[in-house]
Amino acid sequence: MSGFIPHVREIITNINYRRPDYISANSSSNKSSRDPSMDLAQTQSKTSSKYAQGIPDALSFDNIINGGTCPPTTVREFMKYLECVERAPENLQFFLWFRDYTLRFEEYKPSDPFSTPPATATSENKAFGSSEYQNDSAVRFCDGAEEERPINKMKSIMDFPPQFIAPWETDFDKEGSSLVEVPSAQTSYRMIAEKTFDRAGIKIPDPDLPYRDEIDRIIAIYIADDGSRQLNLSSRQRTSLLERVSTTTHPTAFQPILETVEYSLRHQAHPNFIRWSICNGNKPRQIFAKCLGVILITSGCLYAILTTLSNMSRGWRAFSAIFWVLGISTLYAALQGMCVVLHGLHHRHLRPWELWESEESAMYLDDKSNSGKYEDYPWIKKYEKRFIIRKIFDREVWVQEPALRQIQDIIFLQALLIGLGAAAIFTVIFLAVPGGDFF
To answer: According to the UniProt record, where is the region Disordered (predicted)?
Structure first.
């Protein structure tokens, strides 16, 4: 009971909460391209309020990345959202790789990571060092959630099928100096990287630099023109990066593109992910809830009209308020992506890819020939064949993240208050109308 009262007080205090607006990739990229050297620390300070942009501190970007959240808002769900909904996971994959690479680089501390003195190996690396993300206070305990930090236990959290595995998710040798790769595959990566340097008119780097094989792989995947996960970079950013990595493998070499990638994640991907995570029902369930709300509102109007035109006493008209409260509340919640029935249980529908996740993972472990394209995911065809009634009443799971449940509580209270207010207005109007006495 002692925890219930503060919870209710918190909900009432934030009753004017608004779900984050959807931010298109174009608007985010245009804004970042106009100011490529933006100060991320400044932008974070501007949005440091408790519910900045509709996102509480507990669901902040840093808290999610540091493993301080519970399902369905962990790093794993963030990656799956970008992969299956936005269909653009490359920014987060690259960002996580860079964090992991920075930690490994600092731990290994190669004696000479530079073939020549770097142009910008200065104090700028302080802003993107490992200390920025070592937020021990961010780790919270929750039932059924991963207790490992994402940097130290990346493989357990990012347990994707092979075609989803990011470049860092392979075995490293004990020295930490290079990736353990199939020779033919690494040769292919190196050839692509060399072609990329050659096309940019930049000298091919020294192959003896530490982590050179891994950097070649990153260039082949994320930087090359035909890279499978090519980042959305300007020509200037791309050239600047290639010039740096041609002389050093130090993490500061990625400075020209890291700000752009992180800005896109913080100000476009992350708000959209939180907005999407608030929805506790799938699309068929949301449509069903909207239709149910409209039917209840229409039924209330018909009941009020019929009782007004009849010779029944005015008191009977007040019963239409029941239909209006239920209908308007249900409709408002559905417009916010929520089903009030699921919320009453603090449940959510399993995502389509979660329904066959274990089966899909096992299949991909056996089938290495799959191209990994979105259209090739087996759950897509399976979900399309699923009967509509089964989609509406699909499998459910408990929402573990407390901050997300609190947001849903606020939206539910908003829906209830709007329903009560609108129903009261409609009821007063119909009560004031004289009876028709037609039947």
So the answer is: 23-49
